[in-house]
TrEMBL record:
Protein name: F-box domain-containing protein
Region spans: Disordered: 1-22
Classification lineage: Eukaryota, Viridiplantae, Streptophyta, Embryophyta, Tracheophyta
One Pfam family hit: F-box-like
Classification via InterPro entries: F-box-like_dom_sf, F-box_dom, LRR_dom_sf
Domain F-box: 26-73
Domain of life the protein comes from: Eukaryota
C-alpha cells in the first residue's frame, strides 16, 4: 500500500515539474527583438499583416508599416480572406487591402503577383507613378483589355519577369512588351483550352517572341498549339535561353534526333501533357530534361 502511495506521489511530482517547465518555455512575443519580428512579418506576407497581425498590439501596428515588408505583394488563387459569401464584399475588402499595401510600399514595390481580384484600374494606379516593379504576374481571372495592357506595360521600364495568362495574345503585343521592357529576361505565356486561334497563329506568336525578345533567359509557353516550326524559331532566336517550358504543347513532335538536336542546347526543358493549375508551382508528371541527358 505504501509503495502504491509513493508511486502516486512520485508521479504527481513529475507532472508538476512538467507543468513548471512548460510554463517557463512560454515566450512573450512582445519581447522578441525588432529584427526577429520583422523576419516573422516577412514570412506572413502583406495579406496577413494588414488583415490580422497589425491588430495584435500597438508595437505590431508600428512594425506593420515598414516599407520593405511590402516589396512583394502576392495573392494566390486560394486566398480565403477575399472569398466572401458576398462577392461585392470580397472585392471591396481586396481593394482596401491592395490600396493600403501600395501606400505602405512607399514606391519600393518590386513584385506583384495575382491570380484574381486585381483589376485593370488598380494596376494602372500602381504604374502611373514612378515605380521599381521588376516582376509582374497576372492570372487568368484578372480582367483587362488589350489597350489597358499596353498602358500598363508602357510604364514598366525596369520589368525583368512577366507572367500573363489571359489567353488572348497578338504578335503586336509581344512587340510592345519587347520595346517598353528592354530588361525583360523571363516570359511566361499561358493559353487556355479553347483559345480562339487558328493553328498558324500559335507559330506566329512563337516567331514574334523569338524575333523581338532574343535576350530572354527563360521562356514558358503553356498549352500552346505551335508546331515544330515555332520550336525551330525559338531555337534560332534565343542565344541566351537556358530554360524552356513547353508543357501541354500537343502539336510538337517530340521524337527523334531532330527534336534532341533542337533542345539539347538548353540547360533545362520541361515537357508534360498533364493539365496544370497556375497556382501550382510544379506539375506532378512534368518531365524536366537537362542538356546532359539530351546529348547522351
Amino acid at each position: 500500500m505504501s509503495k502504491r502511495r509513493n508511486n502516486t506521489f512520485g508521479h504527481q511530482l513529475t507532472k508538476n515539474k512538467r507543468r513548471k517547465t512548460t510554463k517557463k518555455e512560454v515566450r512573450n512575443w512582445l519581447d522578441l527583438p525588432t529584427d526577429v519580428m520583422l523576419l516573422i512579418f516577412m514570412k506572413l506576407g502583406p495579406v496577413e499583416i494588414i488583415l490580422n497581425a497589425q491588430y495584435v498590439c500597438s508595437l505590431w501596428r508600428k512594425l506593420a508599416k515598414e516599407p520593405h515588408l511590402f516589396h512583394a505583394i502576392i495573392v494566390p488563387h486560394h486566398q480565403h480572406h477575399f472569398h466572401c459569401c458576398n462577392e461585392a464584399t470580397g472585392l471591396r475588402k481586396f481593394d482596401m487591402f491592395f490600396e493600403e499595401a501600395i501606400v505602405r510600399s512607399c514606391g519600393q514595390l518590386v513584385k506583384l503577383s495575382f491570380e484574381n481580384f486585381l483589376t485593370q484600374e488598380l494596376l494602372l494606379q500602381v504604374v502611373s507613378k514612378p515605380n521599381s516593379l521588376k516582376s509582374l504576374r497576372i492570372g487568368m481571372e484578372v480582367g483587362y483589355s488589350l489597350n489597358g495592357f499596353f498602358e500598363i506595360i508602357k510604364r514598366l521600364p525596369l520589368l525583368e519577369e512577366l507572367d500573363v495568362g489571359n489567353g488572348f495574345y497578338t504578335c503586336h503585343q509581344f512587340e510592345v512588351i519587347s520595346f517598353f521592357c528592354p530588361k525583360l529576361k523571363h516570359l511566361r505565356v499561358e493559353y487556355y483550352c479553347g483559345s480562339p486561334y487558328e493553328p498558324r497563329d500559335y507559330d506566329e506568336h512563337a516567331f514574334a517572341i523569338a524575333k523581338n525578345m532574343p535576350h530572354l533567359h527563360s521562356l514558358h509557353l503553356i498549352r500552346s498549339a505551335m508546331t515544330n516550326k515555332g520550336l525551330q524559331a525559338i531555337q534560332e532566336g534565343f542565344p541566351k535561353l537556358k530554360y524552356l517550358d513547353l508543357r501541354i504543347c500537343f502539336k510538337l513532335t517530340l521524337d527523334g534526333d531532330v527534336f534532341k538536336k533542337r533542345v539539347c542546347r538548353y540547360r533545362h526543358i520541361r515537357l508534360s501533357n498533364e493539365q496544370t493549375r497556375r497556382w501550382s508551382s510544379t506539375a506532378k508528371s512534368s518531365l524536366v530534361i537537362n542538356c546532359c541527358r539530351c546529348a547522351s
